[in-house]
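[Discussion] Sanity-checking designs against the backbone

I'm trying to build intuition for which residues belong where. Below is a structure token string of 149 positions. I'd appreciate it if someone posts a full sequence so I can compare it with mine line by line.
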């Protein structure tokens, strides 16, 4: 079972190897954040991960017309208890909308600690910063201008 879990984690991570910008939405629900992101940004190098505690939510995301495994990957994950399938410092942006408030304070602290290890941008210590979605687009455009001709 451990081998199967490792293969699943590697499959999730390998899906975005072509990407220059990787976003993770934790607590994605039915995709009300990820699908507008994907619709707005048609760049093939823009990749969105989506995870949720509820398997039913993930099935709904995977059934959406905009769900494309070349541009996004949805998976079931309890961020307070499960291992994240990402290497250290590998994600550009992590979006959490009403996730931490749904967790017990101890679980929220554990989730923040895990998420901060996979984030490129910053380490969350004792505070939480909320980044508007428009900032994500600006940040992506800025990164693209640095690395693309």
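Best answer:
Here's mine. Compare freely.
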């Amino acid at each position: 079972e451990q081998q199967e879990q490792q293969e699943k984690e590697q499959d999730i991570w390998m899906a975005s190897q072509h990407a220059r910008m990787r976003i993770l939405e934790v607590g994605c629900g039915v995709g009300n954040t990820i699908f507008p992101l994907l619709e707005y940004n048609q760049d093939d190098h823009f990749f969105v991960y989506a995870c949720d505690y509820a398997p039913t939510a993930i099935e709904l995301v995977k059934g959406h017309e905009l769900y494309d495994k070349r541009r996004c990957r949805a998976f079931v994950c309890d961020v307070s208890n499960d291992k994240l399938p990402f290497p250290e410092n590998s994600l550009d942006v992590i979006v959490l909308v009403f996730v931490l408030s749904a967790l017990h304070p101890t679980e929220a602290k554990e989730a923040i600690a895990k998420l901060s290890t996979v984030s490129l941008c910053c380490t969350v210590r004792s505070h939480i910063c909320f980044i508007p979605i428009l900032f994500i687009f600006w940040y992506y455009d800025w990164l693209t201008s640095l690395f693309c001709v």
